[in-house]
Write a structure and sequence with these properties.
Number of strands: 12
CATH class: Alpha Beta
Order of helices and strands: HEEEHEHEEEHEHEHHEHEHHEH
CATH superfamily: Aldolase class I
Number of helices: 11
CATH topology: TIM Barrel
CATH architecture: Alpha-Beta Barrel
Shape: globular
Number of domains: 1
Radius of gyration: 20 Å
Strand content: 15-25%
Bound molecules: ligand PBG
Helix content: 25-40%
Structural class: alpha/beta
Largest sheet: 10 strands, mixed
């Protein structure tokens, strides 16, 4: 082993071109997916208070937004919907004229090349705010599967390119795969939110999506943040059920999970840099306590370095601009 003074690690750090040549991780807008919140109404571009820079868009305001996303070289958007009404069975999720189904059509018209990814879950559509059907005060796994499958199919029939089940019901990937195959949609891939933790970092999102559970919490279906082996089992299960891409969510507090998933599974891996992770950076930057741009780039680099191929992030647009040398 060569060591000091024969070896000087600083030599390759002296010149920026050398630093650049030996850089191991390179962020690119081409690995980002940008989440969007869609709502009813007209002319709505309503700021989401705890997520500065993010908005609720009505359908008529979507075209301009997705045009920008595509122009920035971001390959896809992930859609979340705010329905006009909620009910116990989350009907809005699988209504062929539901908000997401309408949004998909608008986006496909406005930016045909943009990949439309949809979140398959009931929590934005149920009046109780849980991700599944309630039976005797509990979230019933098996009854929920059929509704998730219907939701995914409604999204695909409206034009979605990739469906991402996030309800954390056992068997959800299989149920969706079977429903899509039966309908002749065997070419539509599934991105499973395989290892999704019961995280307090979803707080700002729940304000944005109005999806806070009205009683209890999500710990009977989302994972315990303390568990890493269980995450490997969740990912294994999603793959066995037919997931084409798997995900770890959140990202920053779970970089070890991302790394282990990368080493263990030869499947495309996504990481979701969630709302609370975004809000922390925004809040500290607004206070002048953190330098927003380098901090954001460092955090996203860490997610990629940990092993994620795809990064779902609310920072996507600003980072894409920075990477183009703008702003
Ligand atoms: C739906 C869903 C949630 C998020 C993505 N899909 C909320 C939740 O599980 O409570 C969170 C995303 C974020 O915080 O950015 N189940």
């Amino acid at each position: 082993m060569v060591s000091f003074p024969d070896m000087r690690l600083r030599r390759v750090r002296e010149l920026e071109p050398v630093r650049s040549l030996i850089r191991e991780t390179r962020l690119s807008a081409s690995s980002f997916i940008y989440p969007l919140f869609v709502t009813h109404g007209q002319g709505v571009r309503q700021p989401i208070e705890p997520m500065p820079g993010c908005y609720h868009f009505s359908l008529d305001m979507l075209a301009e937004e997705v045009g920008q996303v595509a122009e920035l070289g971001i390959p896809g958007v992930l859609l979340f919907g705010l329905p006009a009404e909620k009910d116990p069975l989350g009907t809005g999720a699988y209504d062929p004229e539901g908000i997401i189904q309408e949004a998909i059509k608008v986006i496909k018209q406005a930016a045909p090349q943009l990949l439309v990814v949809t979140d398959v879950c009931l929590c934005e559509y149920t009046d109780h705010g849980h991700c599944g059907v309630i039976e005797n005060g509990k979230v019933d796994n098996d009854q929920t599967l059929e509704l998730l499958a219907r939701s995914a199919l409604a999204q695909v029939q409206a034009g979605a390119d990739l469906v991402a089940p996030s309800a954390m019901m056992d068997g959800q990937v299989r149920a969706i795969r079977e429903a899509l195959d039966r309908a002749g949609e065997q070419n539509v891939p599934i991105m499973g939110y395989a290892a999704k933790y019961a995280s307090a970092f979803y707080g700002p999102f729940r304000v944005a999506a109005d999806s806070t559970p009205q009683f209890g919490d999500r710990r009977s279906y989302q994972m315990d943040p303390a568990n890493r082996r269980m995450a490997m089992r969740e990912i294994e299960t999603d793959i066995a059920e037919g997931a084409d891409i798997v995900m770890v969510k959140p990202a920053l507090a779970y970089l070890d999970v991302i790394r282990q998933a990368r080493d263990r599974f030869d499947y495309p891996l996504a990481a979701y840099n969630v709302s609370g992770e975004y809000s922390m950076v925004k809040a500290a930057s607004q206070q002048g306590w953190l330098d927003e741009k380098p901090v954001t780039l460092e955090l996203l680099t860490s997610i990629q370095r940990a092993g994620a191929d795809i990064i779902i992030t609310y920072h996507a647009k600003e980072v894409a601009r920075w990477l183009q040398g703008r702003d």
